[in-house]
Amino acid sequence: KGEQWLAQFMQAYQPMVERCIREHQGTVKDWAGDGMLAIWLDKQPPKTNTLHRQRPSQMTDKNLSNDIRHQALCAALALTRAVADFNQNYGVSFPIRIGINYGPFWLSFNQDLKVFGDTVNASSRLEHLNKTLKTHILVSKEIITEASAFTFRYLGEFQLRGHASTAPVYELIGLTEQLSAETLDFINRFQIGILNFENENYHLALKALTQLYYENFKDGPTEY
Among 119, 125, 79, 124, which residue's Cα sits nearest to residue 102? Predict the structure, then answer.
């Protein structure tokens, strides 16, 4: 469509993305082309020309919506809905891939704010894994709380690029109260297939996952 169209597209796309992040207490740190990094902080660090390690605190507030993990997950779901509407309005198919991780990371206050550390790197690796699994939102185990209002699908252990060991990976499906009984049943049956695979019951795993695949050809993790 041309460079001018692309420039106009991004001028509309980026504010839409940033609005979804801000509305859920996040901060957009960096843009690189059509990709960006957003961060959520438990507390604001001192603004000095030094390194500061942001450590995640334990959730003590009984109101779950105040937890930054809850806000980040809500932002991801809001972003997928906003991008779907955006694609329809522009008549394009612009993919959305999100990786979310929770843990300590480093902040550097040397003129510009810099963010780095293994927590940040792992979220980027999760984002890239979406392309392989044909998913939209992948998260780490650390992002999931016991009192979560969300439904996640356990996809198995994966060795993320640059990591020596494997880590469990989950797909964010949505708010549990908004999911249909059919969707929840599909997820439960998928989990049975994955658990059979991890327990080396390969025949049962293949049977379960093959049946699910023929029910939903578009489900990336089942196909994978």
Answer: 119
